[in-house]
Amino acid sequence: MIDITSIPPYKPEEIEPKWQSRWEADGLYHADPDPKHTKFYALTMLPYPSGDLHIGHWYAMTPSDARARFKRMQGYNVFFPIGFDAFGLPAENAAIKHQIHPKQWTYANIERMRTQLRSMGNMFDWRSEVVTSDPEYYRWTQWFFVQFFKHNLAYQMEAPVDFCPNCNTTLAREQVQGEDRHCERCGTPVIKKNLKQWLFRITNYAEELLDFSDIDWPETIKTLQTNWIGRSKGAYITFKTESGEPIEVFTTRPDTLWGATFLVLAPEHPLVNQITTPEQAEIVAAYQEQAMRQSDIQREAATREKTGVFTGAYAINHATSERIPIWIADYVLMTYGTGAIMSVPAHDQRDFEFARQFDLPIRVVIQPEGAPELAPEEMTAAVEAYGTMVNSGLLSGTAADKSLETAVAFIEQMGIGRGAVTYRLHDWLISRQRYWGAPIPIIYCPKCGTVPVPEDQLPVLLPDDVEWLPTGESPLKLHPTWRFTTCPVCGGPAERETDTMDTFMCSSWYYMRYLSPHYDQYPFDPQLYRYWMPVDTYTGGSEHATMHLMYVRFFHKAARDCGITTGREPMRQLRNQGMVLGEDGEKMSKSRGNVIAPDDLVQRYGADTVRSYLMFFSRWEVGGPWNSSGIEGNSRWLRRVWATLLEPADGGASREVLRALRRKTHQTLRAVTYDYENFEFNTIISSLMELLNEMGRAKATGAFGTPEWDEAVDIYLRMLAPVCPHIAEELWERLGKPYSIHTQAWPQVDEEAARDEEITLVVQVNGKLRDRIQVPLGISDAEAEQKALASPAVQQALAGRQVRKVIVVPGKLVNIVV
RNA sequence: GCCGAAGUGGCGGAAUAGGCAGACGCGCACGACUCAAAAUCGUGUACCUACGGGUAUGUGGGUUCGAUUCCCACCUUCGGCACCA
After folding, report:
1. What's the Å distance between residue A627 CA and nucleotide B30 C1'?
2. What φ, ψ does residue A163 adopt, rounded to 5°?
3. Nearest protein residue to B24's C1' (by CA)?
4. From the C1' of B39, which residue's alpha carbon is nearest?
5. Which of A184, A540, A702, A816 is found 20 to 30 A from A29 (Cα to Cα)?
6. How far is the CA of A767 from the C1' of B48 (A)?
7. pLDDT, position A300
8. How does A481-513 read in b/e, with b if 16+ C-beta sit within 10 Å?
9. For A28 and B70, how far is CA from C1' in angstroms?
10. Torsion A720-A636-A733-A26 (CA) sign
């Protein structure tokens, strides 16, 4: 009899901290360049130190860690670093609310989160840790700004910009979201403010950003970025006012030029005041003011009635030599194209509505194929389809498929315009009127103008002795001495820029700093850069699609053009995880009381169980609601792994049982290898559960202690190690295998062992399942057909009917058609 | 309105993708162990059935010997965009 009590119980609370300290002490996860191994840079998005590691962090990081471990066992030299995106508003809000310095708040949170992160048992190389609010980090953030400034990729502009009245700062276009145009961080609707701000020329890279050919990124992210960039092909066309003032418009339909019966300018268009006639001046001014106020409140839905006023001025349509009126209307946006349009009411719905509203002429110049002949007075909507050009002078009769290029050629020949491409994308506004960020390293000198801080004077340090006003105004502006300095060029008195940088700037290059976080000659050690870059796999949330994930691509390309980086893209492969919801299916939030705290789970079940459940409960890219009883299943599974592998049993299994055990072991290995590679984490766990069930059955029939059993155990632990690193290490040791399992090689599939000897042949009659018969592998089609027809169940289903056709799918199925 | 993703048992999901629908787990039911309970182990678990079989992967069509998988139309949910000329 076997003495069950001799088996020690599985105690994750003991083995997990034990192994974590041992791995740490041994530097097990340190990655250094090694020419003998292919490098693999695995990266998970760095967390913001909000105070507590939440289940979302675990969900993002655990599968990334498991896959990094898998890659390492496959023989890659894997670098898997971690850090903190430590600048940002919450720290400052805490400062204002609780009278605690943002630095103190941030660094205390980081300390706490480091401990929590360690409890996950990830293979982070902590030597590479980066904190973006450390002066030795933001020195180089500022340095990048200076390089961009020198290469004319950073510039200052005064314009109406999006401003969050709650966060008290300007925002980039990407950080304004939704129909009500609210702040990405706090949800408050933004307002427009006329301010002088720093921007990066991301629009220079619009075309290159649309090219995803070098990278393996999810289609959804590529689509979101493509839509955000919003490329439109068309033409610029210059009209002239009667007094000879040029007005340039952008259109995607140069083929409709002959139908342009009026022009519309945005109310803020700089030409408006110049061209407005004295009689119209008052009404135009009133409209401008109203439009200004309206954009200050909120932009309304697209369905609202068109408004606008006539300027009194006329322009000449060079194509028709016609005199056409110039209007202003708020449906034309100053921020897109040239802020002016040619209005073609017959072929653009918005222009149509405007023309009907104000009784402006409508002229048909496109006749779509198959449509009844269009008559302006009968139209109830614009016809936007392409078609044959009509009423278009020399170009009349041009077919739909040629109309665009023919029209552009005509316009260019006439010298009134040119083919062009515009983008919806705006330049990246990086100025923030906040304290807790990297100061923009610029000095304003009354004599020398705008001067970058010399590189050897970086970083521009944030002063510690600051005070917050309840108004939320940046303390840097109010600091008694900090802003006053001397000009680095002439030495005269000068002032510092008091704005800090968007924190997305900090997170645009951290993957380079990880390589050498304390290197003080350059943002990174070039030798390490050559070895490790680019990032091979990047993981994180898809909510960053048009922010971080676009900025980081821009940044890398811009840095390349400054001669700093190489390669077109920073991250070769991207995968996004979904979100863990509360048990009620809603987003977790303190106010809802549905928050699942990972620390509690670790205490109750151990990190390995939490890890395996997170990888098991849903498709990783989808996520879903937490289930408190679901995790019990994973807890049971690991206890069963423990018992099945450790508890001895009697031997004496038959050859068939052992053969079947080997087959299942290697089939599982094949499936699990595929799943790790392809981010299909949930089926890794179910395959491991299945194999354990099979091992349990084999053990009950005497497999324990046989070479086949030992092989199954060995392969099992190696497959388990990336998901549950602690229990795998502990069992590995208890079974007398050499430390550490995490430096072992990934096992090879023995295809011979994995091969089925018998297969289940599915027999259908007219596509309906009638029988399943066991046949040897490699059976001929004729034999399969014969066996299928011989089946009594099939004979019954055939009921004596004539067989018309038999389809045999080798190794799978026979379908008999009658 | 435009762009994109997704709809499979009571629940999470599987089916490497035209070829056995529901793997694995949760839950539930029954049984074993126990004075009892918990834990553990075992068995069962899509629906209907006149026990022959029939019906099922959001709905309706289509292609095919065969469709969760491909095509068309529609419905629902989620995400993005918002008069972008």
Report:
1. 25
2. -130, 130
3. A686
4. A636
5. A540
6. 21
7. 52
8. ebbebebbeeeeebebbbbbbbbbbbbbbbbbb
9. 50
10. positive
Rounded distance between C-alpha atoms, residue A626 and residue A365, angstroms: 59
**Cis peptide preceding A738, ω within 30 of 0:** no
Which nucleotides of strand B are protein-proximal, with an atom < 7 A from a CB? 3-5, 11-16, 19-21, 23-27, 39-42, 53-55, 65-67, 80-85
Gap from A772 CA to B8 C1', Å: 24
Domains delineated in chain A: 39-229+424-578 (3.40.50.620), 231-423 (3.90.740.10), 598-754 (1.10.730.10), 758-817 (3.10.20.590)
Q: Which nucleotide is nearest to A252 (CA to C1')?
A: B85
DSSP assignment letter at A596: P
Provide, in whole angstroms, the distance separating residue A630's CA from nucleotide B22's C1': 18
**Nearest Cα residue to A753 out of A652, A653, A660:** A660
pLDDT at A181: 83
Q: Residue A4 above 50 pLDDT?
A: no
Please tell me the predicted confidence (pLDDT) of residue A302.
45
Of residues A75, A29, A80, A35, the one with CA closest to residue A747: A75
Is the omega angle on the peptide bond into residue A740 within 30 degrees of 0, that is, cis? yes
Cα–Cα distance, A501 to A437 (Å, whole number): 6
pLDDT tens-digit readout, A408-460: 999 999 999 999 999 999 999 999 999 999 999 999 999 999 999 999 999 99
Read off the amino acid at residue A450.
Answer: T
Q: What CA–CA distance (Å, rounded) separates A719 from A751?
A: 17
Residue whose CA is minimally distant from B80 C1': A224
CB neighbourhood size of A384 (10 A): 15
**A592 DSSP assignment:** T
Nucleotide nearest to A587 (CA to C1'): B78
> What tens digit of pLDDT does each residue of A668-696 get?
999 999 999 999 999 999 999 999 999 99
Is residue A303 very low, low, confident or very high in pLDDT (cuts 50, 70, 90)?
low
CA of A211 to C1' of B53 (A): 57
- CA-to-C1' distance for A257 and B5, Å? 39
Phi-psi region of A86 (alpha: psi -120 to 50; beta: other; left: phi over 0): alpha
Q: Which nucleotide is nearest to A179 (CA to C1')?
A: B82
